[in-house]
Amino acid sequence: MSEIGGGGSSSRRLLHEVEEEGGGGGERPKEPWKGEYVKSIVYGGLDAIITCFSLISSISASTSSSVNVLVLGFANLVADAISMGLGDYVSARTEQDVIIKERRVTEWDVINHIDTEQSQLLTHFQALGMDYNDATLKVVNIFRKYKDIMVDQRMVADKGMLPADEEVTPWKNGLVTFTSFMLFGSTPLLSFIILIPFTNNDTVKFIGACIVSAIALALLGVAKARISGERYMFSIAMTLFSGAMAGATAYFVGWSLKHVAGLEG
User: Fold this and answer.
1) Among 7, 108, 179, 254, which is most buried by a count of CB atoms within 10 Å?
2) Top-confidence residue, 18 or 237
3) How far apart are CA 161 and CA 153, in angstroms?
4) pLDDT tens across 118-163, in order?
5) Cα 37 from Cα 147, distance rounded (Å)
6) What is the spatial distance between Cα 148 and Cα 162, in angstroms, rounded to a whole number?
7) CA gyration radius for the chain?
8) Are 186 and 77 within 8 A, CB to CB?
9) Dihedral, CA atoms, 182, 183, 186, 191, nearest 10 degrees?
10) How many helices (H) and strands (E) does the chain have?
11) The whole model's pTM is what?
12) Which helix (DSSP H) or strand (DSSP E) does residue 108 occupy?
């Protein structure tokens, strides 16, 4: 849900930081990547690669057959992609429904209790640091003339909700997440497929999967930095670290099940 509670204090803090750095002068900060599905693609891809690579690591540590890696890897990849896609669809649909219902309640309140809503909106703007006279004469009294705008403002101030985006289609969100998960999640499995004609050594194939996964994670780390505004090297390092930790943990669990518990695929 698009919640922006506490947005006023965050905005004032950011403005204060800009002023301390030179009153807003100097080089203009770089804008993040924008787009309706950019974040879903990048973060879904990161989750997919780490999940699939962890699975490959655990299977490789507990079995000597690359066939098992491919079969179980793709089976789990498809299952996880469907689960993620459906989850994104349900989440987006539920978010829209909640915002629409909350807006109907707020509309009723604005129409039937305009004075109370106006007073609460005035309090909200004062809490943000606006002068009482400015908030009353220049903002709130004007909003009173425009009921739709006042409803939007009350949604933000009272419930921390932005107006529902009518252009958002939940089924597209689910489809994008499913596709992203499938494409990026299959990356760690590519080395096993590509190396089949060249070697039968499963260790070599697993090392290839590690290299391919690291490259994919690094590229997505760059994309993540463009979205979040982080430094490229820091974003890449954290992304690779997350993948390495997840893979190493999964490998250790698979190795333990094979050598300690005596389980082997």
Assistant:
1) 254
2) 237
3) 9
4) 787 788 777 878 877 777 766 777 777 777 777 887 777 777 676 6
5) 32
6) 13
7) 25
8) yes
9) 170
10) 11, 0
11) 0.67
12) helix 66-112
